[in-house]
């Protein structure tokens, strides 16, 4: 069993493995009180006044308590981050890293700007960890790249992957979870999908071209042509689980 888990872990692509490892180590460290969540959460005042720049990163690594909710988010992170990196971004690790960087920037910007808007400031002030939203963004982007894959939600009903974010959002509403986390992920995911996939087809311009310094970080990788997106050939139905 341990060997199988080790082999599964080693076969993960580099970005997925790195993010999953950082998330698990951070969350476990907080659960064991080795790390304090108070040193990780997004706090604009501390970032600007105390130069605690690391908070811009660490708020994406902590997934709160070690419970069933944590396990579900690790499943979604490992599954959809891996699927994106191995398929839609196959041979384009730099582009995948830039997608995550773009998503993190958009999510942070929404929360910071939202905190300054009357009637919304209190809601956004309570959003201090964006790890779940970044995970949901990956689910959204994957669903856009694979809209015709058939899926099953807990064996209750089937649907195509294009509706996966909405199914998960509906489930969050049913169980009484905050929908803001999911909605922020959908907004960031749609912004990326539009600017990277839709807008270039409309205008011939690509506004989200990966910066050269990020490309240089992954210059050693072998470039592989990515698989066609939106393929109409779908594998067997997949079960979907959500926290």
From TrEMBL:
It is a multi-pass membrane protein. The keyword Membrane applies. The keyword Transmembrane helix applies. Pfam families: DER1. GO terms for cellular component: endoplasmic reticulum membrane. It is found in: Endoplasmic reticulum membrane. The chain crosses the membrane at residues 96-117, 123-142, 154-174, 180-199. SUPFAM superfamilies: Rhomboid-like. GO terms for molecular function: signal recognition particle binding. Its main location: endoplasmic reticulum. InterPro entries: DER1, Rhomboid-like_sf. GO terms for biological process: endoplasmic reticulum unfolded protein response; ERAD pathway. Keywords: Endoplasmic reticulum, Membrane, Transmembrane, Transmembrane helix. May be involved in the degradation of misfolded endoplasmic reticulum (ER) luminal proteins. May be involved in the degradation process of specific misfolded endoplasmic reticulum (ER) luminal proteins. Belongs to the derlin family. This is Derlin. It comes from Musa acuminata subsp. malaccensis.
């Amino acid at each position: 069993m341990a060997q199988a888990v080790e082999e599964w872990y080693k076969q993960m692509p580099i970005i997925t493995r790195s993010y999953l490892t950082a998330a698990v180590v951070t969350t476990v460290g907080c659960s064991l009180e080795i790390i304090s969540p108070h040193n990780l959460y997004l706090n604009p005042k501390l970032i600007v006044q105390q130069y605690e720049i690391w908070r811009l990163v660490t708020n994406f690594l902590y997934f709160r308590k070690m419970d069933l909710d944590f396990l579900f988010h690790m499943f979604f992170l490992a599954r959809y981050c891996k699927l994106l990196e191995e398929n839609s971004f196959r041979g384009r690790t730099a582009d995948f890293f830039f997608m995550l960087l773009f998503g993190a920037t958009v999510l942070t910007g929404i929360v910071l700007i939202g905190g300054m808007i009357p009637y919304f400031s209190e809601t956004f002030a309570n959003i201090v960890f964006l790890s779940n939203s970044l995970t949901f963004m990956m689910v959204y982007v994957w669903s856009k790249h694979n809209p015709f894959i058939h899926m099953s939600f807990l064996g209750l009903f089937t649907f195509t992957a294009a509706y996966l974010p909405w199914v998960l959002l509906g489930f969050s509403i049913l169980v009484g979870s905050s929908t803001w986390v999911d909605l922020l992920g959908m907004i960031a995911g749609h912004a990326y999908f539009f600017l990277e996939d839709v807008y270039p087809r409309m205008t011939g311009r690509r506004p989200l071209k990966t910066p050269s310094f990020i490309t240089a970080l992954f210059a050693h990788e072998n470039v592989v042509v990515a698989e066609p997106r939106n393929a109409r050939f779908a594998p067997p139905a997949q079960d979907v689980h959500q926290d």
